[in-house]
From TrEMBL:
This is Cadherin 17, LI cadherin (liver-intestine). One of its GO terms (cellular component) is adherens junction. CDD domains: Cadherin_repeat. Coiled coil: none annotated. It comes from the Eukaryota. Keywords: Calcium, Cell adhesion, Cell membrane, Glycoprotein, Membrane, Repeat. It is found in: Cell membrane. GO terms for biological process: adherens junction organization; calcium-dependent cell-cell adhesion via plasma membrane cell adhesion molecules; cell migration; cell morphogenesis; cell-cell adhesion mediated by cadherin; cell-cell junction assembly; convergent extension involved in gastrulation; homophilic cell adhesion via plasma membrane adhesion molecules.
């Protein structure tokens, strides 16, 4: 029996009590559920009753098992009652309530709601927009992965490019086109038929009318017997029926367990897809010649909705008046009058296709109408006065700017009428007579002599344009120091960071306020550790040399700095910086008697609380900058556990330490000079005592009594001086020679437990109960918990307990006792 479950049977055993157990549906039988073991003496059999449905049994040794598999349904449970019986079939333990929860197993594959789906999508539809949705159901538990479904496309027919034209949302089964499909899919329209307002697609009557209009000469053969007509009718009917004649067929799969699992269950379905024509196509930009002589209104383009009964409406995007465009019922767009490009050169028409209730049948379409120029205006300057810039060293032939707006209808000529001023020479600029380009004709511009030139340009038919050309300064001057040697400056080595040492200054003859005249200062030698820095005052151009990092006379006493003045803009070709742009200064440090310095900033140490007396915890290291002799002393040791060697700085224990007294010690080690000013410095030392398991849990109270009337459990509480992980939670147990059927101890929390007396004693007694208490690390001892006889005397008046010493009667509320 239960051979298939031998591996896990040991995990299915426990005391007889109230339980809730999970049992999977459709298990092989016999199937062992749980073995109940009663603590009562004399048990010879067990009995189960309740919602067994004739499928649930219990063996004489307490094994609850299935004779037949159970079936799952939402919320399905079996409520049972189990008792332990004596040899006489009398209950001696129980009854206990056992609830079996039937759990779902993945034994139902998902099933599509339809075996075949059909849908259609218009050509040119954007990718990623769903046009069809498939769905499936799974009879397994919806709250488990057994019913989590995932959809995928198994295959596509045909597949001309080797890439899928369709995609499916794995979570909800929505079908849409891929980017490849949106670009590739086209509708079949071999016959080229289109439908007008009121005509039903594929209708026999509509097809007969179109056939008569198309076919000449007329044939006396009845149209129903004309094989060409019946072919057309069949093709048009099938074109709009995805089931009979699909353009593409997909096989889609649905899987449970979220898809992709090796043991998932699945099913498939077919999807037939027809690609329908999309007549709602933007005709592109429309070009109209301005001032066009024509009979108006003039048709310029047409649009067609996919719905033959659509009603068209035309609006202007810019909402400007007038709006010289209209649209008729057939989607033909007209311009109603001649257009003027100088008034408006571009119109954006918004075409709407709506049903009779004004509901949009298509997305709004924007059509651009561009008005082309006609040579009907005199040429004009772009600006009344144009302003351009030229550098001082600009090369001959450099384009300054093109100043006249030109169109395909213009034939303009330009000339330079005059230049002001004319120094260093007239004709500093030249203009291209046909293109209107102003170019540099001569060089040697000097901004400080002529900051700008004014030009007058003549244009065909007597027009004129004014041009101002400003000369931009170039970096052809170098900064020059007011003096190249700033001498010697002394400063104490302990001067604060930010202290100003001196001010320096260099000037530049380039145009003020430009990058060519701005001066920056750089320390280029003598300061490898960047102890000094220079701050520039933009208003005066002066540089403030200051201390950027702490100084130390013992490291270096003298610094000879070289400072270079530079421009942020590069110098022009042929100009270089020289010694005039450099200066030197000597910084001398003044020695100051400094206190000793510890080698580290933080002194922290972690040690076990039971470390051996005399152990060295750390060695404090310090030195005097002037190399004077130093010693060490200790302060702040309130417990007298530590001492420091005055010469070596070794900090060691001189007495036993106890973490239960204090967890962290903070003391100070002082390093001090033994001569001259005897300067000193102190460093705080933090010592963290690490707990060791040197305490065991102890009962707070070792005596108590219990009223025989109500048998209220006694709550026992223990304490332990150790910290985690050597302290709580505690484990309580009865340490009797043989198991007692009448006493039981159960946990309350990490530090307490309940002592329970199961049956009333027949006489007043005093019990000595051995209770073993262990801490979280497993360390503990057995304690004697005593109930003295004088605490357990029964009051004949109240049938409760009284204290024999005080003779105070306990009330019925046992907690008051």
């Amino acid at each position: 029996m239960f051979l298939a479950q031998l591996v896990s049977l040991e995990e299915k055993k426990g005391p007889l009590d109230n339980r809730v157990l999970d049992v999977p549906e459709a298990t092989p039988v016999p199937y062992a559920i749980f073995q109940f073991i009663s603590a009562a003496d004399g048990v010879s059999a067990y009995r189960v009753s309740g919602e067994t449905e004739g499928k649930i049994r219990i063996s004489p040794d307490g094994w609850l098992y299935l004779e037949e598999p159970l079936e799952w349904s939402p919320g399905k449970t079996h409520t049972l009652t189990i008792e332990a019986l004596s040899a006489d079939d009398e209950p001696i333990d129980g009854p206990y309530s056992v609830i079996l929860h039937v759990t779902d197993v993945n034994n139902n594959p998902p099933v599509f709601t339809q075996s075949q789906y059909s849908g259609s999508i218009r050509e040119h539809s954007p990718a990623g927009v769903p046009f069809l949705q498939v769905s499936a159901i799974d009879k397994d538990d919806a709250n488990t992965p057994n019913a989590v479904l995932s959809y995928s496309i198994e295959s596509q027919f045909p597949n001309p490019t080797g890439q899928l034209f369709f995609s499916i949302n794995p979570n909800n089964g929505e079908i849409s086109t891929t980017e490849e499909g949106a670009a590739f899919l086209r509708a079949r329209n071999v016959l080229g038929l289109t439908y007008s307002r009121g005509e039903t697609r594929g209708s026999a009557e509509v097809l007969k009318k179109k056939f008569d209009e198309f076919c000449t000469p007329k044939n006396e053969l009845p149209i129903e017997n004309n094989p060409f007509f019946t072919c057309v009718q069949r093709a048009e009917t099938r074109r709009f029926n995805a089931v009979e004649d699909p353009d593409y067929t997909l096989i889609v799969r649905v899987e449970d367990l979220g898809g992709g699992a090796p043991n998932s269950l699945s099913s498939t379905a077919y999807i037939n897809i027809a690609i329908t024509p999309n007549l709602w196509v933007n005709p592109g930009q429309i070009r109209i010649k301005e001032n066009l002589v024509h009979e108006y209104p003039k048709i310029i383009t047409s649009v067609r909705s996919n719905d033959p009964n659509a009603r068209y409406r035309l609006v202007q995007k810019e909402r400007e008046i007038p709006f010289p465009f209209t649209i008729n019922v057939d989607g033909e767009i007209f311009v109603t009058e001649a257009l003027d490009r100088e008034q408006k050169d571009m119109y954006i028409l918004v075409v709407l296709a709506e049903d009779k209730d004004g509901v949009e049948l298509e997305s709004p379409m924007e059509i651009q109408v561009k008005v082309e120029d006609e040579n009907d205006n005199e040429p004009v300057c772009v600006h009344a006065e144009s302003v351009f810039e030229v550098q001082e060293n600009e090369k001959v032939g450099k384009l300054a700017h093109r100043i006249i707006r030109r169109t395909i209808n213009e034939h303009l000529f330009y000339c330079l009428m005059f230049q002001s001023p004319t120094n260093p020479a007239d004709g500093m600029f030249h203009i291209d007579g046909t293109r209107g380009k102003i170019q540099v004709a001569k060089h040697n511009f000097r901004r400080k002599d002529v900051p700008e030139y004014q030009l007058k340009i003549g244009v065909t038919n007597g027009g004129e344009c004014s041009v101002i050309i400003r000369i931009i300064d170039i970096n052809n001057e170098i900064p020059i120091f007011e003096k190249n040697d700033y001498g010697i400056y002394s400063v104490p080595e302990l001067a604060e960071v930010g202290t100003t040492l001196l001010n320096i200054k260099a000037t530049d003859a380039d145009d003020p306020g430009t990058g060519s005249s701005k001066v920056e200062y750089h320390i280029t030698s003598g300061d490898p550790d960047k102890l000094f820095s220079i701050e520039v005052d933009d208003a005066t151009g002066e540089g403030r040399v200051y201390i950027a990092q702490p100084l130390d006379y013992e490291v270096q006493s003298t610094y000879q700095l070289q400072i270079d003045a530079r421009n942020p803009e590069p110098l022009i070709e042929g100009v270089q910086y020289n010694e005039s742009s450099s200066a030197v200064v000597v910084i001398q440090l003044v020695d100051v008697d400094e206190p000793p310095v510890f080698s580290v900033d933080i002194l922290n140490v972690n040690v076990p609380e039971n470390v051996t007396v005399g152990t060295v915890l750390l060695t404090a290291e310090a030195k005097d900058p002037e190399e004077k002799k130093i010693k060490f002393r200790l302060e702040g040791d309130e417990h007298g556990w530590l001492e420091v060697d005055p010469d070596s700085g070794e900090l060691k224990t001189k007495a036993e330490m106890d973490r239960e007294v204090v967890e962290q010690l903070k003391v100070r080690i002082i390093a001090y000079e033994t001569e001259d000013q005897k300067q000193e410095v102190e460093k705080e030392v933090s010592i963290q005592l690490l707990d060791v398991n040197d305490n065991f849990p102890k009962l707070q109270k070792t005596q108590g009594f219990m009223c025989v009337k109500q048998l209220t459990p006694l709550v026992l509480t223990a304490v332990d001086g150790d910290a985690e992980p050597n302290g709580e939670p505690f484990t309580f147990s009865l340490n009797m020679v043989r198991k007692s059927p009448n006493w039981e101890i159960t946990p309350v929390d990490g530090t307490s437990a309940k002592l329970i007396l199961k049956k009333r004693p027949t006489t007043d007694q005093t019990y000595n109960i051995p209770i073993n208490i262990k801490d979280n690390a497993g360390m503990g001892v057995t304690h004697k918990f005593e109930g003295k006889k004088d605490f357990l005397i029964k009051s004949p008046a109240t049938d409760c307990c009284i204290n024999d010493s005080s003779h105070d009667v306990c009330p019925d509320n046992q907690s008051a006792c």
